[in-house]
Amino acid sequence: MRIPAHSVCTAIRDDIVAGVYERGGRLTEELLARRYGVSRVPVREALRTLEAEGFVVTRRHAGACVAEPTEQEAADLLEMRMLLEPLGASRAAQRRTEAHLKVLRGLVRLGQERARRGNSEDLRSLGSWFHETLAQASGSPALTSMLTQLRHKIAWMYAVEAPANPVESWAEHGAIVDAVARGDGERARAITALHTERAGTAHRLRFPGGANGTDRVRTSQPPVNMSGLRH
């Protein structure tokens, strides 16, 4: 079975975000094909996509390498998210479906329950799911795609501290959903802007000081079974 290039792309991107491949390290087609158990063709296609997304760069005499974004580029990502997340919430207030609302309300209930219990690991994944669903509710595939890419890049470049007051944070999530449910785009935009701004203060650069060009690919990683990836 031929593994789709987008599945290989997802696997490589996830490993870059997780730090399996270090900044500036080479990404050889042979190594990647062996790790994911695929031919070099989908790897080549995946690297082209990741280069377009900004995760990979092509260097003369070195080939594909993990990108080394600057601190300014990382800061720009947070600023872009602060502009686009509120836009997505405003659009969601006009275009959401009942299915979107059901998922969003369920996530808020779970988030508020976990916040009271202090389970920070669950809260992180629930928060990601919430914002992904909110973006999808905007009814704009282009905006959803941009926000998804931003989240991937921000997760790669920043470590995120747990909210000082998770109960308050999830109350903001609930207020966003209430505004979206009422079709109040301006309120949804305003609350999301405040929420995104507060969340931004919890981000800390994983690689302060800029790129040094000395990182290399970790070649001791075990192969990845790609046989179950069909989408």
Automatic annotation (TrEMBL):
The keyword Protein transport does not apply. Residues 2-69 form the HTH gntR-type domain. Pfam families: FCD, GntR. Keywords: DNA-binding, Transcription, Transcription regulation. It comes from the Bacteria. It comes from Streptomyces hokutonensis. CDD domains: WHTH_GntR (cd07377). This is GntR family transcriptional regulator. Residues 204-231 are annotated as: Disordered. InterPro entries: GntR_C, TF_FadR/GntR_C, Tscrpt_reg_HTH_GntR, WH-like_DNA-bd_sf, WH_DNA-bd_sf.
